[in-house]
């Protein structure tokens, strides 16, 4: 991006003086380095007042107004040219639309512009430019009218096989080949089919879960009088022997209740 380099100092200063929002600040900076009072700036535009709020960070270099911008930790600073509105489109095109721009997103485009330039409402202008870029919009998922996707179906049509009804349609009716009773019957049958499908999926999930559990289980044969160890992974309060054992025992089997216990 070489927009600033292609301009001479006189051209940049002339463009700033022609901008109605930058001119009052530039003229006052040239006359005096002291910050003007609020009464002196009261009649100016809101944009000029926002520039006035940045008075301490605005500086003149060869008669051109710059903003000294520092990062959060103060380790580095940049000199941002206060850019007039008449040339903003050139910067946006060179930063986003050009071959070197690469049609990056909002944050990356904004970061690249902030390295060289500054103007009021900069983030909103960058966001609007990127959102309205035809090439960037072509990369996203195409949409058609009425919120339909490329499948030509809305969410309401997928569920009820008809377009949604609005309050005015319910009150005054809606022309169409089907009656309200037919729509309700279609909706009822569709919901029943969805519920039936969900029940089958739940049953299939239970079978798969049980099969997975049974495949990892081992077959133990407990007999009366046999010795077993009881797993007790939870540590109890009080002193414990070291190393701590997760199983207690052995215990003697007194009675067999079932195949598990």
Description:
The strands form two sheets. The protein has a four-stranded mixed β-sheet with strand order 1-2-3-4. Helix 5 (106-114) packs across helix 6. A hairpin with a 6-residue loop joins strand 2 and strand 3. It starts with 8 loop residues before the first helix and ends in a 9-residue tail after the last strand. The chain is built from ten helices and six strands, in the order H-H-H-E-E-E-H-H-E-H-H-H-H-H-E-E. It has a domain at 9-138: Orthogonal Bundle (Endonuclease III, domain 1), CATH 1.10.340.70. The protein has 261 residues and is of the alpha+beta class. 43% of the residues lie in helices and 11% in strands. It has helices at 9-18, 23-31, 46-53, 88-97, 106-114, 122-132, 134-139, 155-160, 167-172, 180-216, and strands at 58-61, 64-70, 77-82, 117-118, 227-231, 247-252.
What is the element string, with H for helices and E for strands?
Answer: HHHEEEHHEHHHHHEE
Could you tell me the CATH topology label of the domain at 9-138: Endonuclease III, domain 1
Structural class: alpha+beta
Average of the residue pLDDT scores: 75
Strand content: 5-15%
End-to-end distance: 78 Å
How are strands sequenced across the largest beta sheet? 1-2-3-4
- Major beta sheet, specifics? 4 strands, mixed
Topology:
Elements: H1 9-18, H2 23-31, H3 46-53, E1 58-61, E2 64-70, E3 77-82, H4 88-97, H5 106-114, E4 117-118, H6 122-132, H7 134-139, H8 155-160, H9 167-172, H10 180-216, E5 227-231, E6 247-252
Parallel strand pairs: 3-4
Antiparallel strand pairs: 1-2, 2-3, 5-6
Helix pairs in contact: 5-6
């Amino acid at each position: 991006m070489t927009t600033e380099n292609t301009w001479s100092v006189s051209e940049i200063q002339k463009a700033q003086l022609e901008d109605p929002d930058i001119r009052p600040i530039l003229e006052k900076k040239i006359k005096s380095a002291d910050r003007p009072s609020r009464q002196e700036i009261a009649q100016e535009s809101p944009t000029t007042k926002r520039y006035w709020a940045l008075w301490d960070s605005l500086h003149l270099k060869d008669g051109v107004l710059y903003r000294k911008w520092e990062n959060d930790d103060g380790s580095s600073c940049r000199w941002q040219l206060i850019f007039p509105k008449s040339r903003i489109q050139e910067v946006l095109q060179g930063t986003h639309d050009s071959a070197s721009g690469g049609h990056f997103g909002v944050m990356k485009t904004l970061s690249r512009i902030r390295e060289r330039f500054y103007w009021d409402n900069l983030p909103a202008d960058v966001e609007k430019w990127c959102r309205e870029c035809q090439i960037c919009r072509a990369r996203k998922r195409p949409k058609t009218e009425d919120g339909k996707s490329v499948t030509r179906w809305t969410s309401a049509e997928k569920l009820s096989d008809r377009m949604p009804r609005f309050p005015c349609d319910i009150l005054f009716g809606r022309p169409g080949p089907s009656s309200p009773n037919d729509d309700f019957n279609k909706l009822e049958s569709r919901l029943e089919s969805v519920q039936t499908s969900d029940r089958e999926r739940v049953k299939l999930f239970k079978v798969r879960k049980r099969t997975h559990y049974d495949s990892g289980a081992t077959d133990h044969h407990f007999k009366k009088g046999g010795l077993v160890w009881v797993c007790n992974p939870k540590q109890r309060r009080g002193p414990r022997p070291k190393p701590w054992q997760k199983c207690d025992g052995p215990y003697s089997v007194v009675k067999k209740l079932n195949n598990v216990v």
